[in-house]
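[stage:ingest] chain + small molecule (glutamine)
[stage:ingest] validated
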Amino acid sequence: MTVPAILALEDGSIFRGIAIGAEGHSVGEVVFNTAMTGYQEILTDPSYARQIVTLTYPHIGNTGVNSEDEEAEQIWSAGLVIRDLPMLASSFRSEQSLSDYLKARNIIGIADIDTRRLTRILRDKGAQGGCLMAGEIDEAKALTMAKEFAGLKGMDLAKEVTTAKSYEWREGSWALGAGHKTFSDAELPYHVVAYDFGVKRNILRMLTDRGCRLTVVPAQTPAADVLAMNPDGVFLSNGPGDPEPCDYAIAAIKEILTTGLPVFGICLGHQLLGLASGAKTQKMKFGHHGANHPVQDLTTKVVHITSQNHGFAVDESSLPDNLVVSHKSLFDGSLQGIRRTDTPAFGFQGHPEASPGPHDIAPLFNQFVELIKARR
Ligand SMILES: NC(=O)CC[C@H](N)C(=O)O
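[stage:predict] done
[stage:export] tokens:
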């Protein structure tokens, strides 16, 4: 028996399909992601908090889900929109079907809608407020809720998704069939404090693989507490929402930058580094969400295939003299990387941990470690 579901948009559109997850309703900003797979990483990426994600690739769920690919402890995305859920999930790593996974975690999903039409709306009109409803349907109510969604501009979500308490992280990447490797402190020469604004686990693993002993701290940790830990470097994580209202983080980063400690920011962390350096950020029309975005390193001219997930960006015209552009998107020329000229700090807008290239842009993590070594 199929359960009905709808997606209502603030522009008045209604898409009718079937429920593939929980029943109820959910409101958020509707965005499209063009990745062919990686749906489990997308769903659990805290940067997708308050966002309903539609995947443009038509068959989603083919490989089921497993306990190794979670980027966080829970699903943060506000819902999933797909064209077609295959009847069979098949992979040697599959532990559960996508549909059972969504139901078990009380996340609403919809399938059997025209995701091409939806994507054209999002591309032409920009990301839309939306409401997913499954089970008992009230279209008028769904439309009202979609229209009433305030939008992500001005919304500080980092403090909502961050860890409540600091913790230590020693887990590296996984080796096929061997699980994740746990390192001993003796194997990890550099102490890095990682600000958790909504951090993805694979970022922590890739830093650990490169010799970083991590202390992950809550988003609102003051700079003084971080500096008291005497770290060799500070990492600023990705995260959801608008970077601009995160004034506590901007103030802390500003203070940390004055010490000359190596600082590396990814996505929201990159945007916060920009703000702390005096640049401005802006909301994009529909953002970048996908796994095949070409980004050029302006120094080497090398083009990297990158994973992207952002709806805000650092405004290039606002960069102060001590901040230079290091990377640019070859899709739309937008700013993708910044580097401070007066202190060892840099940021990258894409997601080097998401491995679409698959390892194209991973050397950014090495670059951070090189800065740590140089300072020592
Ligand atoms: N992945 C991220 O860190 C996203 C950053 C920010 N929330 C944006 O949408 O631009």
